[in-house]
Specification:
Distance between the termini: 22 Å
Number of strands: 6
Number of helices: 9
Structural class: alpha/beta
Order of helices and strands: EHHHHHEHHEHEHEE
Strand order of the largest sheet: 3-2-1-4-5-6
CATH superfamily of the largest domain: HAD superfamily/HAD-like
Shape: globular
Radius of gyration: 17 Å
Number of domains: 2
Largest sheet: 6 strands, parallel
Helix content: 25-40%
Strand content: 5-15%
Amino acid sequence: MANYTPVTHVIFDMDGLLLDTEKVYLASITEVLKNHGKDYPDDLRVKVMGTIPINTATIIIKELGMDIEPADLLDQFYDKQISRMENVPFLPGAERLIDHLHANNIPIAVATSSGLQTFKIKTANYQHVFSKFHHIVLGSADSEVKRGKPAPDIFLVCASRFDDKPQPEKCLVFEDAPNGVTGAVDAGMQVVMVPDKIIPIEKTSHATQVISSLLDFKPEDFGLPPFP
C-alpha cells in the first residue's frame, strides 16, 4: 500500500471533478473553433484543462495559429456555454463525498478556475450542496490568486482561508486535470486525481493517488473518517 499522510482539510476542484462540465466545454469550444475552420484535438484539450478562461483562450489561439483576441474568443465560448450550463449534473460519488466530509466536520473548500458568471449558473440549482463548503475560491476572479493553475497560488490562498489556516501538507486536493495536480503538488499538498479518459497515463504520474471515480475513494487512506 502506498504511503499516504493523514490530512485534516480537503480542497476540491469543481469542473470535471464535482460537476460534469467537461462535455459542455468540449461541445461549445468545438463548435466555436469549427466556425473558425479549426479542430479541437485531444492533446490541446489536455493542455488547457484546469486553466483560467483567459489562459485557455490564449493557449488555443497560439496552438491553432488563430487571428483573434483572447477576450473575443472567450466571448464566443461563453455565448455557446451559457445555455448548456444550467443543469450540469454532479459526477458519480461527488455529493456522497461532500456530504460525508461535511457530516464528519472535516473542513472542505473549492478551488476552481471557473469564472464568476459561469460559476453562478453552474451552481444555481445546487446551493444545498455548495453551502456545505467553508469557502470557495474562483481563480479567475480573486485578486489574491496572482497566477492560475498550474501555478500553486489558488491552493495556497484556499488553504489560508480555513479558520485554522492549516499547513499545506495537512490539505488533500481532488483534481481531474494535470494542470491542477501540478499546482497542488507545487503547493506542498497531496492530490487525488480522477482523470478524464483522454488524459495520457504519463500525465497522471505526479498525483499522490489516481482513481477512476470519486466512488472509489477511501477516506481512511488519508486518515479521514471512513464511509459508514
